[in-house]
Amino acid sequence: MSAAPVPDTLRAPLVVEFPFTRSLGPVQSAFLTGLRERTVLGVRAADGRVLVPPVEYDPETAAELRELVEVGATGTVTTWAWNPEPRAGQPLTTPFAWVLVRLDGADTTLLHALDAPGPDAVRTGMRVRVRWATERAGAITDIACFEPYESADVHGTRPHDGVFDDPVGGIVAPARLDYTYSPGRAQTGYLQALTERKTVGERCPSCTKVYVPPRGACPTCGVATTDRVEVGPRGTVTTFCIVNIKAKNLDIEVPYVYAHIALDGAGLALHGRIGGIPYDQVRMGLRVEPVWTEGSRYPDHYRHCGEPDADYDAYKELL
Amino acid sequence: MPDEPVAVVGIGQTKHVAARRDVSIAGLVREAAQRALEDAELTWTDVDAVVIGKAPDFFEGVMMPELYLADALGAVGKPMLRVHTAGSVGGSTALVAANLVSARVHRTVLTLAFEKQSESNAMWGLSLPVPFQQPLLAGAGGFFAPHVRAYMRRTGAPDTVGSLVAYKDRRNALKNPYAHLHEHDITLEKVQASPMLWDPIRYSETCPSSDGACAMVLTDRAGAGRSPRPPAWVHGGAMRSEPTLFAGKDFVSPQAGKDCAADVYRQAGITDPRREIDAVEMYVPFSWYEPMWLENLGFAEEGEGWKLTEAGVTELDGDLPVNPSGGVLSTNPIGASGMIRFAEAALQVRGQAGEHQVDGARRALGHAYGGGAQFFAMWLVGDRPPGA
What distance in Å separates the CA atoms of residue A31 and residue A43, rounded to the nearest whole number? Predict the structure, then answer.
């Protein structure tokens, strides 16, 4: 046992990204299909106001709203903010203004980008029009952006049944988050020990349980763990399942055994694959040891180490 | 001043299905909320606050979908809260709403939980590619299957018990028009012949992936007096948490679950749950969790839960029916699943459960858990006001 040094903690990018689908429902479907057809639709609220973009339910009365109207593709900027450094995924790659635009005929404003040469060219009250994207698919990006355009505010609407050929029923909304991840002091020490094929946990000074992997604190006692303790390398299979279906991102032949393994000296089990014996011969209590492969951070799998099975009472608290 | 009694006077669910492509998330929650209001014969203006719950954001994307649901739920100008406790969220959401009424903060509260699994990705949400960490080796059921094996080893339960639960719940679901799975040709042989996915869990012993929402209207004693249909009264409610992983954690029968049940029984004056409770809606995502929770919730001694299942006690016509609605095994919009348990318990004591009504149910337990057996939420509802 030795006091934990303070290593340089590891850091790495963590990208969380997934293309989520969204069903639109009747109102958003009409709105986005309309954009594809260069038609901007709003919805009439219970008090007669025209809401653009349209919503399904009245913000004042909660009533279901279904009366669609067509508004103009020209409008007035009601407020704005200059964006000097556009980021990836924003509507324009050159500096632009974020604007709230009240389209002619609408009583509410729409957030979008205004293509303007600089902040001096933008003012509240200026007249603008939609610049349509060349290729439109039924998405808010069918409006490429707004552009300055002098015209009279006609402020009229026309009834619209919202019916189009081949309506858009859903959209794909990609979500992406970029993090810098650090596993922290305790896990960094654990990971560094793994490079020497050693498994090092930390002991809680209060309950004396050894946490592997260590997390820097004991979740039961709420105190910092500081004493490093090497555990294993051998351990006991405490429970397991036989995996018969291939996971999407894993290149492991099925069936295989996924087990909870209590390394000797550890206060709780970690998870690993059991190899080297037929899957149907794996059992609770099996004594195992890690099998390492070149270039891998973790043991590739665990195999039977030849010792007789552990007694159930010896591991029943470590399932 | 004693707490205000809390009554459930309105319940609404959507017909749970694999994919509701015809509605937006707003349209889905609206449907359940509207049905709950209609059941209570109330309007949006009668609601003082809205408490909503859903699965973790990563399941449906990182856009906090509850933010844009205020219009659909008539919450504009009213307090709107979101509750966030993983799979147990439907239960804890209902309890937060109930607490607002019992503390006399609000008189009538709309509470709702939802999930569109067809537009989310639970597997991805639960297995972010965290740098330096070993990837999860087993998929969704692989997390649960070792705990089931541990239960079987501990109790000596025969390996057929899981299939009995699945067969019962799927038959119960046939009597529940809102249930997702309606397997009209289900047989015990089919359950037992279904593929073994994560041995010892078979395909037919796992929950489906559903789109659905559930809503309830909770109100005070005066509100209950105006209810057109019999209310369900909240006799006890509690939540407990513990870490997902710690040295000494008992995944088969977590301490937080035992403590939560004990608190609810104490509040409700229950000393013998097996005799005093008439129906249970418990969160059983994999069939073996029925016998496991029967022990954890005090309906059976440790090691004896499977014997109740095997003896038919938990069947719809048994003396402790469990999941008369068909349960999570038949319907699983994750974010809503806990609230469906709470709502189905309330339907039973209101006598409004239709074909899956347990005759003469006077006290029912609703149970939810989630986050790798980290969060527990339960309530006990009765057909009479507390103390009556």
Answer: 9
Rg, Å, chain A Cα set: 31
Sequence-distant (6+) residues with CB within 8 A of B207 are B285, B286, B328, B329, B330, B332
Note whether A284 and A308 are within 8 A (CB). Answer: no
């006609």: which residue's tokens? A154
Chain A interface mutation, best of B199, B252, B255, B374, highest count of A Cβ atoms under 10 Å: B199
- Give the residue from B121, B149, B202, B209 with the most A CB atoms within 10 Å of its CB, the best one to mutate: B149
Determine the residue of chain A that is closest to B121 in CA distance.
A20
Domain layout of chain B by residue ranges:
7-120+208-382
Judge whether B1 is closer than 8 Å to chain A, CB to CB: no
Residues of A in contact with B249 (CB under 8 A): 268
Peptide bond into B200 cis (omega under 30): yes
Question: Got the DSSP string for A132-143?
Answer: E-SS--SSGGGE
Q: Do A20 and B129 lie within an 8 Å CB cutoff?
A: no
Q: What is the CA radius of gyration of chain B?
A: 19
Per residue in A87-112, pLDDT (tens digit) is: 988 999 999 999 999 999 999 999 99
Unique residue bearing structure tokens 């933008």: A122
- Domain edges within chain A: 25-168, 199-318
Class of domain B7-120+208-382: alpha beta
d(CA B55, CA B61): 11
Q: What is the ipTM, given to two decimal places?
A: 0.93
- Give 10-residue mean pLDDT values along chain B (388 residues): 93 98 96 98 98 88 81 95 94 98 98 94 73 78 92 97 98 98 98 96 96 98 98 98 92 97 98 98 98 98 98 98 98 97 98 98 97 92 93
Report strand pairing: A287-291 vs A227-231.
unpaired
Distance CA B168, CA B287 (A): 10
- Pull the structure tokens for residue B83: 């509750």
